[in-house]
Predict the structure.
Amino acid sequence: MTAISSAPDATRVRALVCDDSSFMRRLLGDALRSAGVDVVGEVGDGEAAIAACARLRPDVITLDMNMPGLTGIEVLRRLPARGPRVVVVSALTAAGSDLALDALEAGATDVVLKPTRATPLDEFGQRLAQIVTAAAAARHLRVEAAPITKPLRPVRAPDSGTRRSSPLIVIASSTGGPQALMQIVPRLPARIGSGVLIVQHMPPGFTASLARRLDSASQLAVREARDGDAIEPGLALVAPGNFHLRVERGRVHLDQSRAIGALRPRADITLSDASRSYGAGVLAVVLTGMGEDGLGGVRSVKLAGGGCIAQDEMSSVIYGMPRAVSEAGLADASHPLAHLARAIAEAAA
């Protein structure tokens, strides 16, 4: 069954909801409408989604992954390259998180966890509308995330005299981040700096799948952080969804204190902790994402004498987080995605 609005408002973001559950379609549609998004249709299967996209031309589709007939991945791959942006709405299961990552690699913009009975619906609706609105403005970048067989060797960089020779690398990313990380982390050497910390805004459960996927493609060991893990040169630790990643005395600690700006993990917290523990020996890397997370943390890094590299505008799916640090004059350099792995390796040599 397809529900179509008769008079969509062209001044607002136009969204199409696709889910095989009529209850979930109604919940998502109501949540978006209450937050000011123009829901132009609600459809229950992949074929109907493709037909509705051709007829209604939405800006964004919220797309379920597990549906009868065409799966969400198949729908995504059949959409035109310059068609609507896709926000995956996935259940919190191991299979769901893997499918969501497949969708991100295939061109989806972001992933949202399906609400449960315990989810505050007002907060969920506002967050979903924020992600859908950001997706509508996102660049159409289709990034291939094939495993990298020849990672970079460490490159000797000129000594600036202002930071340690083996910095702790802290990577902050949000929308578009999983695709960017798949292009950067597999190209890093097996041992780099004092270690790597990754703060990627994702729902709980999805960060474990991301860490496994990065690990399988990299010489550098990658895993989801556990409380008390040591920071080591041959290891990249990914902040678990729903936990802040704290840094103290060469170890990480997981913290469930309040979300900041609806974000937990928050990169600002990790970067600020790192600057207190490592002083000038921190290299912040700010990748694609909406909002300004990372800005406050990078200020702390720079005040302590550390460095910052930002992704450039043209290669960012959403140029929000890197724009914030660049326009504040905090980025030492800005690079396209294809050059970031080498820039990080050179800075950490």
The longest strand covers residues 38-43.
